[in-house]
Fold:
Amino acid sequence: MVRENRLGAEYHAYGLTAQRGKMVDAAFAGFCELVDASDLIRLLRLLKSPTELAFFRQAGKLVDEACAVSQRMTVPGASVGAVYGEMMNTIMRGDGDPTASRWPMGAGEEALLVRYHTGHGTVGPRDQVQFEIAAAYRHYHAALMYVILSGEPDPRHRHMFDACAEALDACEEALRPGNTVGQVFAAHAEVLTKAGYAGHFLNACGYTMGATYPPTWMDWPMVFAGEPQVLAPNMVFFLHMILLDSETGLSMSLGETAIITETSCEPISHAPRRLLFAQS
Structure:
């Protein structure tokens, strides 16, 4: 029997704070029954149309161009904020949009904090600069993640990079129709654990992307252990391999965005498969 006094609410919506959620509940109390229908639209967002995929590919081109700018401008003594600004200028000149949230970028110790710090600092003579960037085109985002080193590299950085590159390749091999999101995370965890980094990688290694504009470019599901969502063609995921070693003070990351195809996946942003060094 159809009940006409039931309405679905997207309680998972980013703009619906706990306070406003209570206000919505109160406004409909006695009028109709509200049910949590958060997944109704979210699941529809997972599968992208040809137009949406074209927007994603253009965003991928723009974020690759921004990455090239960062490689040119990241030198000892450079302001990380100035590098950020020139990268964003490149995206805007390419007819892109301002991104939905700030880019997690940092040098030195702040490279380990990823997104949990303020300010940008200056590139040191022997440094690690963490970049988690994105470009938006018509509100659709493609993201990249990587590290640029200055000065003589610590040999452990090379080992960390090789592990991240192997893990990213393994995740993209798993990012294919019929697999689950949890299987993608398992590929990431297996490689990094085997490389000796158990306890130094995160409990999630990516997320799906969509038209979720401010305050975030992230959408659900996250890529974490046991996530049952089955992968299908035309889904889009950002995969990030992140190593944060608080004992040594070293960090490394590598990540790119990919569209799931009929048989595998198509990267639309391109993380460097070589360790990046600041130009002298």
